């Protein structure tokens, strides 16, 4: 619930008035590696994956489904290693990864946005007390 509330605060900061929701699932390196291989053709674990919902005109969906943005999957194993490397708690690292993944769900791409996604991530981390570099 706490992570859900956190995602709602991030959503309000990034896209005010956009009330779509996202799910967040915490998995092992083994599971995220399987997902990464299956959906991105990369046979390695990663820290976070974002799966946007298929765009379907909202008039064809029940109201609660029309508000669905997509799924975030975070590897607890990778998050724990990264948290230790940068000296933060696991909960904070998972929040950092959730911010990153949520921006992907909104369509941001760090390879195409010329630093905009990175800038927005830094702003959100500072605003929410996530002081990771």
Number of helices: 6
Shape descriptor reads globular
**What structural class do helix, strand and pairing data support?**
alpha+beta
Low-pLDDT parts are: none
How large a portion of the residues is in β-strands, by DSSP E?
Answer: 15-25%
| Percent of residues in helices | 40-55%
Largest sheet: 3 strands, mixed
Rg value: 15 Å
The number of distinct β-strands equals 3
Cofactor: Zn(2+)
Keywords: Endonuclease, Hydrolase, Metal-binding, Nuclease, Zinc
Protein name: Endoribonuclease YbeY
GO biological process, one term: rRNA processing
Please outline what is shown here.
With 133 residues, the protein is α+β, with helices and mostly antiparallel strands. It has helices at residues 2-14, 29-40, 63-66, 76-86, 90-105, 116-127; strands at residues 21-27, 48-52, 68-75. It starts with a helix and ends in a 6-residue tail after the last helix.
Please give the structural blueprint.
Layout (H helix, E strand, L loop, with lengths): L1 H13 L6 E7 L1 H12 L7 E5 L10 H4 L1 E8 H11 L3 H16 L10 H12 L6
Parallel strand pairs: 1-3
Antiparallel strand pairs: 2-3
Helix pairs in contact: 1-5, 4-5, 5-6
